[in-house]
Design brief:
Layout lengths: L7 H29 L3 H11 L5 E3 H8 L3 H13 L3 E5 L7 E5 L1 H23 L4 H21 L1
Antiparallel strand pairs: 1-3, 2-3
Helix pairs in contact: 1-5, 2-5, 3-4
């Protein structure tokens, strides 16, 4: 029979995961705010838009990709629109939906923020890992993500 409690090793790994998953986004947010006046959520939206065809995405698809509630995304998009980073366009083939579109100003903000953001990610996450640790880390995180996708 399998115990429902975590082993000591599992408990250490779990606590470290929780601490890292709280501290890392906070550190990345501070860096982005300091260096580019973007928030981490701004950066995530802009990155996802650059990865789509025509730098645009349906609101519902973007919310699903980011794992955000639609209402959270709608409020955030309004704030980004007011700063000129994105625009909202009605979907002509479906009057119910809308697109979020990357603006030239949003693309420029992302291009300016990305190099220092990448340096920060490398510094905080990857510089302290050996190639073997990076491979193990990638494998472990991939397995967790696969399991999460299976359970929905």
């Amino acid at each position: 029979m399998t115990s429902t409690w975590l082993t000591d090793a599992e408990q250490r790994a779990w606590r470290n995961w929780l601490t890292a998953s709280a501290k890392l986004p906070a550190a990345l947010h501070r860096q982005l705010q300091r260096d580019s006046a973007l928030s981490l959520p701004d950066f995530e939206v802009l990155v996802h838009l650059t990865e789509t065809a025509a730098a645009r995405a349906r609101v519902s698809e973007l919310a699903q990709t980011l794992q955000w509630e639609r209402s959270r995304l709608s409020h955030h998009i309004k704030r980004m629109e007011s700063r000129g980073l994105v625009a909202r366009e009605e979907c002509v083939d479906d009057g119910r939906g809308a697109y979020v579109v990357l603006t030239d100003q949003g693309r420029l903000a992302l291009e300016r923020a990305a190099p220092e953001h990448a340096r920060t990610v490398k510094s905080l996450v990857f510089d302290s890992l050996t190639p073997q640790e990076l491979e193990a880390f990638t494998s472990a995180v991939s397995k967790v993500l696969t399991r999460l996708d299976q359970v929905g």
